[in-house]
């Protein structure tokens, strides 16, 4: 689904600290401006002038203008609301938020249906409305709040009534069997333990799937089953105690009887659901609760009514009323809306608050990003009390950890773990978890209602401040986590090799970890690797993505490095989520390092404080990206203090091998050990470099920066438990390291042997167990796979060990492998002997192929299975159509020497497996009977006169089988002749089709994949070559991909064909990359001897991928890079460079012409802003040329750049909306062009202006409680 950029922009403004109304105003102003721009831009297409804009078929100026008018009206109304006396006095309240939603709602239906603006309005109405009200539809109460707000339907009126269906109808509609509320069925009372109410709820309701559910799963209601409602019920006393502690009078008068009623209400709050998506059945669930209380527990009707109403009204109506549940003398239930007095919102009861907050807390299980703004406890208490906020933050952390422990978290749903709780014992098991010691706040508050005095003396969180002078003890680490003083820099798959880059040489022995650690230790040319001579002086590792640990925030990968007490001066950007800054060099963010963009330490400190406040509310990570549960801080790294690993699920794991969880419990720790040992190596190498560079003072300088200990301590981090625990160094002995490797690899090997029958032909690298060596096993046990989307390839994570330790690890794994294989093969032998496994099963067959010893021991069983296959009629029933062969040539039936595709194909055919085993077992007669079967198929095919590709494929398949199993078969020559006849026939048929060249190309591929000799069919394709040659000038560039196959098959000299085509082809060449690749595949070369031909091709290669008239320099330079691969020594000659330079000059003139033609149509921009856009446009084009680093920038472009920049010197800069990254680009271009001194003063003026303006804007923002600060 396409992301709505204006919803993202709105959320970004809220994150920056703007209030809801300001965030909306800023977003609407941008939207309005963009819509006006869009109208003006599309006008160009209709005038035929705007070369950069095509005519938009969906351009409807009247509709867009109407939307612009509506947006303008809303902006005016929102500004009026903001200026109102109520808003100025109280700020954002439920009342003012509702007024804002009414403004949006009244105009929403006038907008384009399903357009971005209407999507934005609907989003704001739902999201902001849900903070204070129920915005959901209801199965009983109509219309919905959203329909009322958007004026689709009339609002409720006082005493409006909705009659409820009978209880039996209600039960039947839910797919729940039996009479739920027959008092004769149970003797339960309110006084019974909650455990027994949970059992009743499960047995009578939650064990049954939704009526619309078509999936049969072990868990009837996956997201809203007994586990969720029981967990929510057990939060009730926790919230009650928190409300009591902080002075809520109603809460202080609660009794255990009240708590039991609230808990039962929570057990029933999802009872009437019919699906796991939006809850439309709140009022029906409240009815089932009412019946349970009155009919089963015999609670008086008035009490039951109050509890049921509290459940249905846990989120109040935006219509400022309350839904009452009434029962008449005949037992008929109805809901009645009661308008609250004087147009105010009815105050919430403590029942409503606790029911709401318990359900709201457990929504963590369904969200990547939690938001405590929705909690009544936060709105009323924690938002105004720092201690309450810290305790609430700890509660959120513990709830997240508890939910994950029970297999119910958003990032990883674990059905096996959930099954432990999705039963009638849910309550007992959840209580056991809460009392396990892992969740101190839950444990302290869930058991009983504590007195106010007890609560006042109870310490729930340790607020001891961080001590910069003290060592990182457990207490100091906890304080550092709470204060945001620990940064984590993750290294995903640290022992992997980086991917090679086109413009940079990569040393094959430098892993991702080596590169990361080396760069952090750069200084004055030390640890710098550069292709430039002398290398660029580099210092530190700037603009690296890091995460702040604490408050449950996760990390990107399973292991990495830590920075304690980071320097505020080195922080470049603070973000609540991963803002996709990218990997490697962050050229697009390089401006953040410049002086004018450096924020004051006070400002950075304020941003970090704001971030920590958001983290306390659970507001970190991306809302809708699973696994993105961390913040991002751009930091200039100059040292590391420790190493971390985590067994939490991480997105780095998922990117590396498609699973959020670690490959093994020891994988993250062993990655950390690898990092530790790699750091030691780099530490000593850097120490020596300092001594060499700085002489006697080198040692002191080195120790001042990196400390005296080469071994960084390792810590285990868990965001789910919000803990950072030092690993006992005494436990990380070489002996224990070896044991961990053996355990990890052994588990992998056992699991691999259990899955030998899996088809691995689609894997990029063969991971079949018997084909893996010890080094492969190390990689696969730690990273699951040998390939890596983040790097060139995975490597073993013991590369940083000393050689003796590496040998110990390898020898121990090899010994374990021998034992595991022997144990597995012994087990398989027993299964073969007991007829539990067949020699012809995939598993049995494969193991027998790799274990001659086992074949010898199981010889009798193998023969019995083969004889049964051959003589039982199974062989007779075999069909050629049931055999599939891979699309690669096959030369052997020797399984250990086959590729993965062939091995998997053979394993799917019982006939092939039987033939191989017959040969190995000396059953020559039976092997001959299988060969005879091939002969039967051959006779059948030869007797048929079928034609076409299907007939050809059958014969090719049979020919492959005969070549592998019966190469002396006398029918083989006839099959070859039949194949050749079909090939000739198909080529003749293709000649009459438009796609004959593509069809011929595919036919050649088919013949090659089937191993059919080239000599048998190449002459047949002469007709294809001749036909193309007749119409060569009309050959499309895209057809060259297919023509290459024919030319190479016939071994024709390509130069004359290519030369003629380039000279005679009359059109421009669009999307020329494929064409140049085709020429390269034919080994064609351009040199000074065919310079005119080179010139012709350069002129015909269009500067746009599509047949459009405007210039795309980035595309053109991509073509030129490909063209350079066709030159002598892959380097342009001086003459060729002159041709390219002239062509670039022509395109520069075209660019300037485009800019001049389109400029008059941007009248909606100020003169100043138009000049700024012209400047940045030229900067982008020049930067493209500079990055290509192959041709000089044309003088015409330089002159236009200079003129545009000089013009800015005369403008009022307040009329320009500057963008930091674009101005940085202008500065970068300026520094690489001639005569920079003539332009420097203008850039300094712009930098000073932007710096002053940014500082003023930041200081003007007043963080709003509604924005989550």
TrEMBL record:
SUPFAM superfamilies: HD-domain/PDEase-like. Residues 512-522, 530-542 have a biased composition (Basic and acidic residues). Residues 490-545 are annotated as: Disordered. Gene3D superfamilies: Hypothetical protein af1432. Residues 221-373 form the HD/PDEase domain. This is HD/PDEase domain-containing protein. It comes from Legionella taurinensis.
